[in-house]
Amino acid sequence: MSPRSPSVNEELRRRSRERLLQAAVELVNERGYEATTLGDIADRAGSARGLVSYYFPGKRQLLQSAVHRMMHRTLEEGLEREPRTEDGRERLARAIDAILGLARDRPVLMRQHMAGILLGEGFVQCPEQQRLAQLLRETVAEYGSQDADTDYPMLRAVLMGAVYAALVPGVPMPVPRLRAELFERYHLDWEMGVPPGTEVPGGTCESDLSRFFTTGRRPDEQPSADQPSGDQSPGDQSPGDQSK
Question: Global pTM?
């Protein structure tokens, strides 16, 4: 069997990481954080267990990256849904509604995500977080900010505060009330974005999380005899991945 090319190995590694991210959000959403082990995540992903530690330092970091991916893709969907718009105020309203919608529709995942940030591991600077940050920063700039480098961290802070307030056990703030405060802060009309009670196709309440992760074959990729479908071949593992 001829050796796999570097591009094929890279694609297999990408798929492996994607499957682990997807498995993490699915299992934590179903069982909760404490009841989900790294072994469970590897098994759901169909991966060798050593691959988890190869890609991520631990369970908290894996979950943060997975939730950042979910947040990034949810925000992207909200900004690009039909009818498309270049109106900066409308796009900021959609961004606020996308993040608040996750607090409403994915409380288990978002609560664990916030808990992880407040623990010793802090804020994970992963590729998923960087894509989320870039999209929020672009939204602030489109809104009309003259200093996006200053205004983006403030938007991030107020959104995190609103998510935290919506998820505090025992005394959660209603999402519509939090939305009203944020819309007033940024001088947005209530009718913008996705007002409470509005049905949006493909919204955050869908139970299927797989759309946030790209684990399949690329459209331009053809299967070959020397390219296995799994991720447990030597070219796709770190040296310690042979152990279970």
Answer: 0.82
